Amino acid sequence: MFSLRPLAARQTASLSLSSRVLARFASGPVGTPPFSLSSSSSNKTSNIFETAKSLEKNKPSSFSNTRNPSLRTSNKYGNSAPAPPPEPEDGKQRVGYVLHCKFTPNNTILTLTSQYVRVGKRYVKLTKEERYMDLVRPLEDVRINLTAGILGFRHTKQGEYEAGFQTAARMFALMSEREFLDHPLEIILSNFGKGREAFLNALNGAEGNLVRPLVTRVTDGTKIRIGGVRPPRARRV
Hints:
It contains 6 helices and 7 strands. By secondary structure, the chain is of the alpha/beta class.
């Protein structure tokens, strides 16, 4: 029959060995008095323990806000972090803006659109190809449409430098008033009317101080005609 005596004897021997080792380290080297803590060392040790206890009490909680989880959440380090923005009700998550600028010899036409990707229920109904298209070329909604004629310029004055400058300055002011400065901006320029130079000067001047830091890309969308039919005659006024 199996007996527990050898096991108990081994445990007793290991305990006695551990006690001898601890006593050896406490007594110090051979011929030296036993080790003892000085008053300064004991004070430092007590201060360390008190600091550890205070840190343990003030340790941030790793639980999220259970009363209102939508306000704040907790990350893996236990620190509270802002919750992600809620999904829009219409299922259109805005990702950026595009400013389409057309400078004809007779007018300056500016159109601001917002780019969005479909989320929520709209995203679930999309096919695989449509989801890829949302990432590569987001859809756009028109936000502001402005021309030189809307600002009061008539006839031949619509194509002048001053009309283009005033139209650009008014567009930048409307973007600031309607809070369309919360996402990156892409600018697409078309044609080479006098308003083109006026728009660039307004963008680089004081009128474009709020818009200029948001610009991430400037594209020239002028169509290049190679051959083709005979163009219409030049407009004479």
